[in-house]
Amino acid sequence: MSVEKVKRASGTVWRVRWRDPQGRPRSKVVGKKADAAAMDTELKRSKRLGGTALAANSRETLAEFAQLWWRRHAAPNLERNTLNGYASMLDIHVIPRLGDVRLQALSPEMIGDLRAEMAAAGVGNPTIRKTLTLLQSILEHAVAWRHLDSNPARGIRKPSQRRTSVVRPLPPETVEAIRAYLLANGHHLDATLVSVLAYAGLRPGEAIGLRWHDVGERTLLVERSVAFGQLKSTKTRKPRTVRLLPPLAEDLVAWHEATSRPAPTDLLFPAPDGSPWNADRARNWRKRTFAEAAEAAGVPKARPYDLRHSFVSLLIAQSASVVEVASQAGHAPTMALDTYAHLFDELSGREHVSAEDLIRAARDQFTSPQVSVLCPRCDDPSSTNTENPWKSPKPTPGLEPGTPSLRVKCSTS
Description:
By secondary structure, the protein is mainly alpha-helical. 47% of the residues lie in helices and 9% in strands.
C-alpha cells in the first residue's frame, strides 16, 4: 500500500495504491493528501483485521452486488416461489431506493429510512419485515464474501412478527357441507382433497404431493410438496407424520377403490396426465371448484388454507398440547401458540370432545335420508323446500365448530 502525488493540469491530486486479495493492483485517486492518508490508514486497518471490502469493491453499488448474490447464491439454492417473492421485494422496495448507493456507503440510517418510507407508503408490516430480513441476508453474504467489513442492516429493528388478526377455522358442519356439494356434483377427487386438508391439516401443496405409499394404517407421511408443477421438500424441509383420523381413513379407502387401485408411487390427487398440479391448475381449483363449493356451503370467502386451521381446532378440542399441535401441523411450538392462543384459551377447562366424534356428527347431517349426498331431495320427490341443501344446517358464527364444548362468544357475522 502506498500514497503518491500526481500532478495534473487541473492541479495536484493524490493516488492510493494497493493489491486486492487476489493480488491484482488497484488504485484510487483522491483530491486531498489528508483524504489519501485516511484511506491508506483504513486499508491497512482493514487488512490487519481481515477485512478487504474497501480494497476490493470501493465503487460497487448495492444493485450490482444484489445481482452477484442472485447469480451466486439465490438462483442455485432457492425454490422458484421463494425467488419470485425475493425478486418482487428487491424490484419494488429495495433497488429503487438504495440500488444506486455504493455498498461501502450504506449505513444503518439509510436502511432505517427505507423502513420509514415503506411504512409511510402504506406497506404492511409483514412485507416490511420480510424486505428488511432479505436485505440483511444479502449484506451478510457481502460480509462473508469480503465485499463489506460489517453489516449495516444487522441492528435495524424490524416490525413485530405477531399476528394482527386471529385465524377462524371452518367448523366440521361447514367442511361436510363443502364435501357433500362436491360429491353430489361428481367431484370425488376434490371432496377427498378437502377431507385431507381439513382432517389432516396439510398445507395445500403438501396434500397434492401425497403418494399412495405415504398413506399408512394410522398415519400420513408428509415429506413432499408441490410448487409450480414440481415435487419438492416441505416448507420446513423435514418430513413429519400426521395421525390418520378414522373418517379420513375411510375417505381415502373409498378414493383408492374409485381410482382402480393405483400404484404405490402414484399421486393421490394427480393432474389428468398423472403429473403434479401446475400453478394454473391449483389456482383454478381454488378459485372455481373450491370457491363454488364454499359459496354453496354458506362461506363464500373461505380459502383452502382455512381447512388446515380446522384440523388444528379439532386437535385442541380433544385436549392436544401446544407441542402436539405444532408437531402435527409441521411448525414450531412458538408459532402454534402465537397462531392458536385464542383457541387454547377458549377451550381451556371445557369438556374435551374427540375429533372423530365431531366429524361423524357433522357428516351424519349430510348422509341422512333428508339430505342425500348423491342426490339432494331425491328421497322426497314431493318436497318443495327451496333452502340450500348444502349450507351448514347449523350455522356457527364463532371461531370453532358449534358444539357445546366449542361454542364461542365472538361473532364473525
